[in-house]
Specification:
The complex is a heterotrimer of chains A (160), B (781) and C (293). Chain A contains five helices and five strands. Chain A is an alpha+beta fold and 160 residues long. Chain C has 293 residues and is an alpha+beta fold. Chain C is 36% helix and 24% strand. The interface between A and C is medium-sized, with 30 and 30 residues.
């Protein structure tokens, strides 16, 4: 059985630089969760539809289950852990709490990481634009309404 | 009961952890030395297992073990039955066949587990799965319910004479006599197809057997940690106290995580004990479509008898229910269907006959609604058809049949899923329907807007559908409430949570009794080490059953607080109030003592605890409802369909819900929105497509279509509160309500949109393609 | 659902990439956006022994104007770049209109123009759009390079004329003729899903306002993008009236396509949708050509 080479990966996640030797086939979602212990990013499907694994790669939202960890060598990744803390929630997180934009919370980190760049691009979105923006994030609990309300509320908070 | 905190839109206690990625889900558990499991699963739906060769898999570097049914020896046994047939019903036929940890003689559904590989990583385990050689002799699969019951059909269970898993007939009054005097009899065949719960979190089990302390800890994505603990202890030859089951944060339950015991739940702890290593198994999404339970497949031959003015004289329904390859859940779902066939209506004559059929498909256990939506679909379709034939308005025909408010508790005399006589405890139905009709602007729409839009060539339809939901069934739940030395309140209950906001709603119930701040009430759920009496989270019973237990325990603690405070403050208890974490004189609030101080005083370091009393400010209470609480609601919708492409656009969606006392309106709305999204999925998007050979053709999110944000309308939630008389909180459940009437509502609204095409919808789910076919059938007739 | 093991190569120039392709044989796969390839690898539907990652080749990622008024896109131009590029908006408005319809934001962050083309999914919008626009593709191998028209590029289900050691490096879109119109119409269960049926239309009017050209290319109705030749013929030299458009749409649906059935739609429904969408696409495209829209 051939032994497959390990790759020396250096990546910055939430501002911290990490160096690890990884197998090329290790998915970024697994690398973040199990190699780095950043379990806030969740895995819902591993075929790129549900969006629960969404992280930011160089500031753009991407499905971490459709990236090999080795691909982010030399790049910057942002996950939900970098957004805010329990004592100090990011305004977007505050808004989600106020508007009840989450129930079981499993899809939530993926939605948050989609909303962060969205609001940067579109600081005053309409309901329709919000729904389109999060159409790549499946949620089984909320029916999306309070999520949309949360994004609107977040937009308001960020503008002030 | 006061309502200072109950009824308020309070932000959730659990959110900061969930929002920052700090909440522990099962796959987040990491234990040093942990190994990973992957399953070899059958591609065939029905096949004889001729042989397995795991030698190559065992040799692969990184593989620690591979187990088959044979390797389990005497430890191999089918799962325990969960729900026995109702002892109170007569002439019940019931063949119990339960799921197995690993296939021994034959495969009975695609995805059934044949072997388990244990390796250093899930990646290596999956490599080794491909090394395993399985010899299967494919057999003809039982897919069709009717064909499955015919003589000569292949048998799912060879030791039975047929694929009949169960048969039950329920009667009320005399349907035949009612039919004889009817002015109109309508008979229809109605077919409902399976759907999946598809929670965003797949299932998972982490089991850790510690040889030194001889204790087993299991993290499990289960809705029922206590029964799992008890069952595992029995299965593995352990005492209950040696087993701890933790259901941490769970990414959505919706029913299938209530199923016990999944093969993986039985196997992974066993492997951990065998290898003395922690073992993790996390289901992937493809497995979820095969190995996690599904629900809704039924075929109904239904008949309704009415008088000329639209009064229902009787109802008869003969139906087949698909239970899949095994039937651990007994008759729960078909009983629910039977109990909802009469809907909210005063129907005196009723016969329902159900045959449960084994098929070579994934097991069927409750998915949000648990059989109720099917019952409601039948009665609402029949009433719609009757209304058309009799020339009566759709809302009016329902009004004429609703159970009047003075008829409660209304006894249907048939039995329900808890084996108790079906009693609708309370209700005031017409105001709810009326409110929905007002909110959607029914009269004005039908009179003005719809004709105008139709004249423009647009296809718009309106629907309005009432429903009941039986909730809050027993047997019981319990809770322990403790005021701690820092004044914070600790509550432990066995009732698990999968997103319903229990950390907040339960805290509100406690805070109401003890005058505390909601964020100072800390709830622990789903850990058998904290609380080990209870059943599980299902049947919309959280607030009713667990909530009332928590309420009772809080009330007991309140009494202790008042007694002790009264002594210390030298004041009669009636003059004291609890607020802001203090006990104080209502008329002189400066005279007070904090709960924290009281808690310390209640736990003396010196002196004796009086006989008949307990130290501390703590109480444990249980609640077991005699019968459930029946919630009621009405949904209304205005829908536009592009008549060329069959794409839908929901213009308005209204729900009016009566679930008794509302603990937290914000959370309630969330439950309704979520339920409606599943209902819309069931109506127009979600269908499990099985091929002729029993394979699932759409086992991925790319092809199993769950509504996304662009499919969901904005839902307007209206509310009516009729106090539930038989529990102190006055509450009814609401977890499943959003999903229940939606298919019936869609059928009605779509027929209304195509009013001039004579469309009759007798199936669920629909889709653009199916609608196109139905309309062309109508055309050609 | 974890992928099988593979060797991983990260060329930084096209030359290096081509060398890797030659060295690692038929069982190597090229990794561009990964939005189609990686799900298939996770399902273990494909198990390449080697992956050649193109994401670190800066020379492949550009959007340039062509001196003849058209557009040149490097194969690794990502959808999100193409979506906001002003050159694309003016010189290839059909592409500009199409990109937002591709899946969702996350997919567009990574997905590439060249990747979509090479993958040759008959349900992919860009596949039909490049055929509708008479695009051309530059293919390079160690032995040289060649140009292939989009029309000739797609030959079967997920199959193109690309040789195993050949790489698509550039897409060239011609300048739009005067009085051009365009449209992309799709029906999908959810907006971000693959279309049940779709059509990309590129039309042009002559000076008299008669149809000079009406190119319609369908998605999801066959193994390849299906060009509606007969429908195009029927409209040539005609005034684009509603009746003419309706008739052409009928011809397209009944004669120019060969849709199949699957769990989402039957062949009959697809044919019906094709007719409806062709009609709507032509209406919109001709309105734009006449500058009415």
């Amino acid at each position: 059985m051939a032994k497959h080479s390990l790759f020396d990966l250096a990546v910055t996640v939430n501002g911290t630089r990490y160096e690890r030797a990884v197998e090329p086939r290790t998915l970024l979602s697994d690398f973040l969760r199990h190699d780095l212990g950043l379990t806030g990013t969740h895995v819902g499907c591993e075929h790129g539809v549900c969006g629960a694994c969404t992280v930011l790669l160089d500031g753009r939202p991407a499905r971490s289950c459709l990236l090999f960890a080795v691909q982010v060598h030399g790049h910057e990744v942002a996950t939900v852990e970098g957004l805010g803390t329990i004592e100090n929630l990011h305004p977007i997180q505050e808004a989600f709490r106020e508007a009840h934009g989450l129930q079981c919370g499993f899809c939530t980190p993926g939605i948050l990481m989609t909303v962060v760049p969205f609001l940067e691009q579109n600081p005053d979105p309409s309901e329709r634009e919000i729904r389109e923006a999060i159409s790549g994030n499946l949620c089984r609990c909320t029916g999306y309404q309070h999520v949309v309300d949360a994004v609107k509320l977040a937009a308001g908070k960020m503008r002030t | 009961m006061t309502k200072q905190i109950i009824g308020k839109r309070i932000r959730r206690n659990e959110d900061p952890r969930l929002l920052t990625g700090q909440a522990l889900f099962v796959d987040d558990v990491e234990i040093p030395g942990m190994l990973h499991a992957a399953f070899v699963r059958s591609d065939y739906a029905h096949a004889r297992l001729l042989g397995i060769d795991v030698s190559a898999a065992r040799k692969r570097p990184g593989v620690v073990a591979v187990f088959t049914a044979e390797d389990m020896g005497n430890d191999w046994q089918p799962g325990p039955p969960l729900v026995s047939p109702p002892p109170t019903a007569k002439d019940v036929v019931f063949h119990s066949r339960r799921q197995v940890p690993l296939v021994k003689d034959k495969v009975r559904h695609a995805g059934e587990a044949i072997a388990v590989v244990i390796a250093e990583s899930r990646y290596i385990a999956e490599d080794a799965v491909e090394d395993v050689l399985v010899q299967l002799e494919p057999l003809e699969a039982v897919i069709d319910l009717e064909k499955g019951l015919q003589a000569g059909s292949p048998l799912v269970h060879d030791d039975l004479e047929s694929n009949l898993a169960a048969h039950l007939r329920q009667k009320k009054g005399d349907y035949e006599a009612a039919r004889d005097r009817a002015d109109l009899v309508i008979k229809r065949r109605i077919v409902i197809e399976r759907g999946a719960a598809a929670a965003m979190e797949n299932r998972g089990v982490v089991a850790h057997w510690d040889e030194k302390s001889k204790s087993l800890t299991v993290w499990d994505t289960t809705q029922a940690p206590i029964p799992i603990r008890n069952g595992l202890a029995t299965r593995l030859g352990l005492s209950e106290n040696q087993v701890r089951v933790i259901a941490p944060f769970i990414g959505g339950g919706f029913g299938p995580k209530m199923m016990m015991f999944y093969p993986e739940e039985m196997l992974i702890p066993w492997v951990s004990m065998k290898l003395s290593r922690p073992i993790k198994w996390i289901e992937d999404r493809r497995e979820n479509f095969y190995a996690t339970t599904q629900e809704r497949g039924q075929i109904h031959d239904a008949e309704i008898a009415l008088s000329g003015d639209g009064r229902v004289l009787g109802l008869m329904d003969v139906f087949l229910h698909d239970t899949g390859a095994y039937d651990p859940y007994g008759l729960t779902i078909p009983l629910n269907t039977q109990c909802h066939l009469m809907g909210p209506y005063d129907i005196r004559n009723f016969t329902s006959d159900v045959s449960v059929v084994f098929t070579n498909k994934t097991l069927v256990t409750p998915v949000r609604g648990a059989g109720r939506a099917q019952g409601i679909f039948i009665i609402e379709r029949l009433l719609d058809i009757a209304a058309r034939e009799l020339g009566i308005d759709l809302v009016e025909i329902r009004k004429r049949n609703l159970i009047p408010p003075d008829a409660f508790p209304y006894e249907h005399t048939i039995i329900d899923q808890a084996f108790a006589p079906l009693v609708l405890d309370s209700g005031n139905y017409w105001p709810v329907m009326e409110k929905a009709r007002e909110m959607v602007g029914y009269a004005q729409f039908v009179k003005d807007e719809q004709p105008r839009l139709r004249a423009e060539g647009r296809c718009v339809g309106i629907g309005i559908t009432p429903f009941i939901e039986s909730t809050g069934v027993g047997p019981y739940e319990g809770a322990r409430v403790t005021i701690q030395a820092d004044g914070k309140i600790f509550v432990a209950t066995g009732y698990g949570t999968q997103g319903q906001g229990h950390f907040t709603t339960f805290a509100q119930i406690v805070a109401e009794q003890l005058g505390a701040t909601v964020s100072d009430v800390h709830i622990v759920t789903g850990d058998t080490a904290e609380f080990h009496w209870g059943t599980g989270t299902f049947a919309s019973r959280g607030v009713v059953v667990a909530g009332n237990a928590i309420h009772a325990a809080s009330s007991m603690v309140r009494q202790k607080v008042l007694r002790l405070a009264g002594k210390i403050l030298e004041t009669p208890e009636e003059e004291l109030e609890l607020a802001e974490g203090l006990v104080r004189l209502a008329d002189m609030p400066q005279k007070s003592i904090s709960l924290a101080e009281l808690a310390v005083l209640a736990n003396p370091l010196r002196g004796a605890v009086q006989p008949g009393t307990e130290p501390g400010l703590e109480a444990t209470a249980y609640f077991g409802p005699q019968f459930g609480a029946t919630a009621f609601g009405t949904h209304a919708m205005i829908l536009e369909i592009d008549p060329e492409t069959m794409m839908i656009d929901i213009k308005r969606y209204i729900t009016v819900e009566d679930c008794g006392t509302v603990i937290n309106p914000l959370i309630l709305e969330g439950q309704i929105h979520g339920g409606v999204s599943m209902g819309i999925g069931n109506a127009y998007y979600e269908k499990l497509h099985f091929g002729e050979n029993g394979q699932l053709l759409n086992a991925s999110f790319a092809d199993y279509l769950v509504p996304s944000s662009t499919e969901m309308p904005r839902i307007e939630v209206g509310h009516v509160e009729t106090n539930a008389p038989f529990n102190e909180l006055g509450a009814k459940g609401v977890g499943e309500a959003g999903a229940i009437p939606v298919p019936a509502l869609f059928a009605q609204a779509i027929e209304n949109a195509f009013y001039d095409r004579g469309l009759e919808i007798l199936e669920m789910p629909l889709s653009p393609n199916r609608l196109f076919e139905l309309l062309n059938e109508e055309k050609s007739q | 659902m974890k992928p099988a093991p593979f060797e991983y190569y990260v060329p930084t120039t096209v030359e290096e990439a081509l060398t890797s392709l030659v060295e690692h044989g038929y069982d190597a796969k090229v990794l561009a956006g990964g939005q189609s390839l990686i799900p298939m690898m996770n399902f273990r539907l494909v198990q390449p022994s080697a992956l050649i990652d193109l994401n670190n080749i800066p020379e492949l990622s550009y959007i340039h104007p062509d001196e003849n008024g058209g557009l040149r896109l490097g194969a690794m131009a990502r959808h999100h770049q193409v979506e906001v590029d002003p050159l694309v908006a003016t010189r290839a408005p059909l592409v500009h209109e199409t990109i937002p319809k591709i899946a969702n934001t996350q997919v567009r962050s990574r997905g590439t123009f060249g990747g979509s083309i090479s993958h040759a999914d008959p349900s992919a919008e860009l596949v039909s759009v490049t055929v509708a626009l008479d695009g051309r593709f530059r293919l390079r191998s160690q032995s040289g390079e060649r140009w292939v028209s989009a029309n000739d590029f797609f030959v079967g289900l997920f199959t193109t004329v690309l040789e195993p050691a050949e790489l698509l490096v550039e897409v060239a879109l011609p300048p739009m003729p005067a009085r051009s119109g365009w449209s992309l119409m799709e029906v999908a269960r959810r907006p971000h899903d693959f279309a049940l049926v779709g059509v990309a239309a590129a039309v042009a009017l002559d000076e008299q306002g008669l149809c000079q050209r009406a190119r319609m290319v369908f998605l999801s109705v066959g193994d390849c993008p299906m060009v509606a030749h007969r429908a195009a013929e029927s409209l040539k030299g005609q005034a684009p009236t509603l009746e003419a458009i309706r008739a052409a749409a009928e011809i397209a649906a009944s004669e120019d396509i060969d849709p199949g059935s699957d769990i989402h739609a039957t062949a009959d429904f697809r044919r019906h949708l094709a007719s409806v969408l062709a009609r709507r696409a032509l209406e919109q495209a001709f309105k734009r050509a006449a500058n009415i829209e």
